[in-house]
Amino acid sequence: MKSKKILFVLALSLGMFAASCSSDDNEGETIIPLQGKYNLSKTGTIVNGQEVLVDAPQNQEGCSRDYLELKLSNAAVIGDYDGSNCALVETTGTYVRSHNDLTITIGNASTTSDIMNLTNKELKIKDKTTGVITVYTR
């Protein structure tokens, strides 16, 4: 009977130890997958400490919304609906995520952004060079 109590206490202790451990490798980083297709929704900047966002002027009226698709293979596809006939132009490149940084490379041009928010419904990024905030929705 005493050995059963010892086993119980040991199992309980191990369970409590495992539950109390955490990894700080992803400090501040969300665990939502980045891959997916995001429709361009809003753009803006920070003015006097406040976010100022407007409907994305890049979206052509009467057309589907422009989009960013991030694939599992690290391919990035930017979809741009343009002109009176809403012709879709797709530009392909690559992306890399490092913690809360997202770098998209198209040809020889790269942009790195802070991931401000990533949920199942939204990706909000802020360009590290220009400070422009872009909001995409799924």
UniProtKB/TrEMBL annotation:
Residue span(s) of domain Lipocalin-like: 34-125
TM helices/strands, residue ranges: none
Cross-referenced InterPro entries: Lipocalin-like
Domain of life: Bacteria
Range of residues in the leader sequence: 1-18
Pfam families: Lipocalin_4 (PF13648)
Keywords: Signal
Protein name in UniProt: Lipocalin family protein
Species annotation: Flavobacterium soyae
